[in-house]
Design brief:
The protein has 312 residues and is of the alpha/beta class. The chain has helices at 27-32, 48-55, 102-108, 141-147, 162-172, 178-191, 195-198, 211-224, 241-254, 267-273, 291-296, 301-307; strands spanning 62-73, 76-87, 91-95, 119-127, 132-133, 148-151, 229-233, 259-263, 276-281, 284-290.
């Protein structure tokens, strides 16, 4: 693994900033275009940029498609009529201010909300090529969590050994052979760029690892069951710059094998690691497009104002 700063410059490493405004723009002003008394422009659930992102997806196609999707916490609608396609074997970043619905949408993919009462899904999240509607109540949430793994904001290793952390999901899937377990744990740890650091202490407690190592262990645990999609919820927000660099390099390497969706508040990180970016605001999908195009020339004024730091 290359030390921080030695990785070749990525074409998305520099974020293009929009023209400076004469004065700071409030969220309300940004939403209305800044004109006093002008009615707020409705935010589309499917935009031309969204269609362009879908059309520009890799030849392998779309791995998951969100269709007219809404999510409710009790009477509160947190996600509003969202439609978006997620390209297979690519990284899509979900960005937007706190409370905009991006993490809520992310957690719908592996049915995390089923763990809490009084929540409701409307619409579909279709997983290709099977065509399964992920949020169909007839579909097992446990099965979805095996097929769609999640890495959380803070490392959450189990109070077990390094080996048993990675083997946990494999055992749930019925893998019992010691040889197969050992081989697949090694493969997962290598996939998470951790094998070289822990191969001689697999029976040691996971909590003995550093924070960055614990997060890579959680990634190895997610990879062990060979998921179709890996979800990252601000995976580096609790890590130091060196550990952050390693996780970002790992995401670059994983994109060739698995579809990745990442929630991040860090605009520079979104620009560095993602192929596509989706901007959400107040539960709605404002704009979706190729990351380089969105950061250099966003289609919507609201997107430009958020990316350039005018609010959020």
């Amino acid at each position: 693994m290359s030390p921080p700063g030695s990785r070749p410059a990525h074409p998305r490493d520099t974020i293009a900033r929009g023209p400076a405004l004469a004065a700071p723009v409030s969220v309300d002003a940004a939403a209305t275009g800044g004109a006093a008394g002008r009615p707020r422009e409705p935010l589309p659930t499917t935009t031309p940029a969204n269609q362009e992102a879908t059309a520009a997806a890799p030849a392998a196609g779309i791995k998951a498609r969100v269709q007219d999707f809404s999510f409710y916490y009790g009477p509160f609608q947190a996600v509003k009529n969202v439609s978006i396609g997620f390209a297979e074997r690519a990284v899509t970043a979900l960005i937007g201010p706190s409370g905009c619905g991006k993490t809520t949408l992310l957690r719908c993919f592996n049915r995390m909300h089923d763990l809490y009462p009084d929540t409701r899904y409307e619409g579909k999240i279709v997983l290709n090529p099977s065509g399964i509607n992920i949020v169909d109540r007839r579909i097992s949430p446990i099965e979805m969590r095996m097929r769609i793994s999640m890495v959380f904001q803070k490392p959450n290793p189990f109070p077990k050994s390094i080996f048993e952390n990675v083997a946990y999901g494999l055992r749930l899937r019925g893998v019992r052979s010691r040889r197969e377990l050992a081989d697949r744990v090694e493969t997962a740890l290598k996939g998470a760029a951790l094998w070289g650091e822990v191969s001689d202490r697999l029976r040691k407690p996971a909590f003995a690892l550093s924070g960055g190592q614990q997060q890579r262990l959680c990634i190895a645990r997610a990879l062990a069951v060979e998921p179709e999609i890996v979800l990252f919820d601000e995976p580096t927000s609790a890590l130091d710059p060196i550990a952050t660099s390693k996780i970002e390099e790992l995401i670059h390497e994983l994109r060739s094998r698995v579809t990745i969706i990442i929630v991040t508040h860090n605009m520079q990180q979104a620009a560095r690691v993602s192929d596509f970016t989706a901007f959400m605001y107040l539960g709605e999908m404002v704009e979706v497009g190729r990351t380089d195009m969105m950061f250099q020339n966003p289609a919507r004024p609201l997107t430009e104002q958020y990316i350039s730091g005018r609010f959020g």
